[in-house]
Prior knowledge:
Elements (H helix, E strand, L loop, with lengths): L4 E2 L9 E2 L3 E4 L5 E3 L4 E9 L3 E7 L4 E8 L1 E2 L8 E2 L4 E4 L12 E8 L7 H8 L3
Antiparallel strand pairs: 1-2, 3-11, 4-10, 5-6, 5-9, 6-7, 7-11, 8-10
Amino acid sequence: SWHDQRGSGTSGDPHRPHMGNDLFAPRYAPVFAIADGTITRTSVSSKGGIGIYLKDANNVTYYYAHLDSISPGIASGVQVKVGDKIGENGNTGNASGGACHVHFEVRPNGTAIDPNPLLVSLYKGG
């Protein structure tokens, strides 16, 4: 779903490219840290719903959106290790009423890239 068009195209909701991949799973499925790093921010917004920003030592930020909840103890400044549970899958924000999924972004040095190659390599054990 990288770069698929989102939004209705109206002035209140203009077309915009989808800057991540949507990872579908049942509601409340655990969401894990993809890297060792620091939680730089948690958020609640009308588009992303409940979200988490995780930055690693290489200045790559990972953004998780549409979560049902954030795990206890996960907050700005908290250090996490790869595989730590940081939240639970949901459909908050503009995903409300739709299929439960995590919107997942990868942003090296602040610029979004297609997360699919990283996700495929991790799935294949690379």
